[in-house]
Amino acid sequence: MSAVAAPSLQPNAGAPSDASAPVGIFDSGLGGLSVLRAVRAVLPHERLIYVADSLHAPYGERDDAFIVGRTMAIGEWLVAQGAKALVVACNTATAQSIAHVRERLAIPLVGVEPGVKPAAAVSKSRVVGVLATQVTLRSARFQSLLDRYAGDCRFVCQPGHGLVQAVERCDTSSPELMALLESYLKPMLDAGADTLVLGCTHYPFLDRAIRDIAGERLHIVDTSVAVARQLERLLGASALKNPDASPAVAPRFFSTADGESQRQLAASLLRIEMSVEHVDIPARSAESRTL
Ligand code: DGL
To answer: How far is Cα 204 from Cα 156, in angstroms, rounded to an integer?
Structure first.
């Protein structure tokens, strides 16, 4: 995943311009917590609001209008909560809707996309595996990344059917999950891949499982830290970075589902004891129909 920045956005009349306002982070579900982890490490003084749209996960098997409608609805909800910037911590939502959101929300915006460029830069065998959702892999944005940055590398692209669902139920190591993951990684290894792009923010939670299968044969490209640094640059450029003297505040977590998996995953993998607030964010169905 790499950072996707909006070009020099000016906050509109209704948008906050207060550096102490929170940053909104959202994903179809729990995957964006891997981005939140990086944002907390890079920007420990920022207040964060995280929304998991777990009621509607996975997005990777939804149609484009649905994904745009959900991204807009959640983005607007976060702006209504006072968010000064938005991180779309979902490759699938970024692929389908970042341009649309950028036109409509006048706050700094960061998206994520598969790390094709860093992978092409490090691969020695010139064969790179990509695991991402089907929607991301078939998107024009992803094709454009390959056209621009693949160079002489061969990219072996594999939709990770079933992996988002496994992470959503906090399954990162069951025999079934390991067998599924192995069936995705083996053809890449057999093709000579030495690098693996994690093109979905849920997949960093499978890094130990990937290591158990591939050992040291795959260099894993996860750009969540690059996303956090891009957010830092954008906040700085907009004079919205919370001063380092500000006290660290625990993030607020919301889920459109019951939030139990989110609480478990955060406790086991991020070592954050969180309470998760339930939120209903209705779809913007009228707009979705016109897309
Ligand atoms: N974390 C999302 C991504 O990065 C998962 C998409 C999905 O819900 O299928 O693409």
So the answer is: 19
Q: Which of 153, 157, 170, 200 is catalytic?
A: 200
pLDDT averages per 10-residue partition of the chain, 291 residues: 40 60 96 95 96 94 93 96 97 94 94 97 98 96 97 97 94 97 98 98 97 97 96 96 86 92 84 89 61 40
Q: How far apart are CA 15 and CA 70, in angstroms?
A: 20
User: What is the residue with the minimal CA distance to atom 2 of ligand 1?
Assistant: 90
Atom of ligand 1 nearest to the CA of 28: 8
Domains and CATH numbers, the chain: 7-112+225-289 (3.40.50.1860), 116-223 (3.40.50.1860)
Contact 108, 238 (CB under 8 A): yes
Tokens describing residue 181: 């993951």
